[in-house]
Amino acid sequence: MDYLIWNFDPVLASFSHLRIHWYGALFALALLSNYLFMHWVYAREFNDTDDVDRLLWYCMGGTVIGARLAHVLFYNFTYYAANPSKIIAVWEGGLASHGGVLGVLIALYIYQRKASFNYFWILDRAAIAAAFSGCLIRIGNFLNSEIAGTVTDVPWAVIFQRIDTLPRHPVQLYEAASYLCISAFLLTLYIKSPSFNLNGRLCAWFLILIFSTRFFLETYKVKLVSYAQEPLLSTGQWLSIPFILVGLVILYHNNTRNL
């Protein structure tokens, strides 16, 4: 069977000693899309967009710091304990989405303390942008030949030549498509809401759908070498469970309040 052979150059552009990777460009595009979406939300609901710049900085900091720390602590702690100077080397790769979400949750809590709205107001709106950002970031992973899928013989399998010559599930694209659909679903709920008081409903659906998707698709990913002997569930699946449970609790309380 003829499979798609993928050997895409992960470097978008090079300038002397500076190299810009496609992953970095898509990560920046994700942050820009967040900014533009929240700019639209603030204009729609407040007719005032002055505070969106401050929001962007909080989201950037929470995403990068949270994602990096989660990668260091849960995915390759032994290496970073032996090489602590490498912890800040984000440009070498190594960001965990679970940590990124947790980092943003903390950053948004700090941000909204000086705002006129409550915590769930900002979480509901940010959930839409975050799901779309996840789509862009997974496309970046695909371009970089990162997050290897398991070996398969399905017709749409991809041979990532930067990894090996075996046909694999393009699990990055599975996630990207899923996150795009989730973002569209959340945006539809937001637009069709009879009022702006969603009380955490979008945040709840974001946590449930995003991390249920992660839990399911982890079965199509190659486990990290350091955790190759994980019993039953992978690290990514274990880390997804608390987020799903929190989403279910928020949704339950939201539905109970509206009875």
Which structural traits does this protein have?
single chain, 259 residues, mainly alpha, 3-stranded mixed β-sheet, globular
Give the topology, please:
Elements (H helix, E strand, L loop, with lengths): L3 E3 L4 E5 L2 E4 H24 L6 H24 L1 H6 L14 H16 L6 H25 L14 E3 L6 E2 L2 H22 L8 H17 L17 H23 L2
Parallel strand pairs: 1-4
Antiparallel strand pairs: 2-3, 4-5
Task: Please tell me about this protein's structure.
By secondary structure, this protein is mainly alpha-helical. It has one domain. Helices cover 61% and strands 7% of the residues. The protein is built from eight helices and five strands. It has helices at residues 22-45, 52-75, 77-82, 97-112, 119-143, 171-192, 201-217, 235-257, and strands spanning 4-6, 11-15, 18-21, 158-160, 167-168. The strands form two sheets. Strands 1-4-5 form a three-stranded mixed beta sheet, with no helix packed on it. Helix 1 packs antiparallel against helix 5 (119-143) and helix 4 (97-112) runs antiparallel to helix 5 (119-143). The longest helix has 25 residues, at 119-143. It is globular and about 55 Å long. The model has no long low-confidence stretch (mean pLDDT 87).
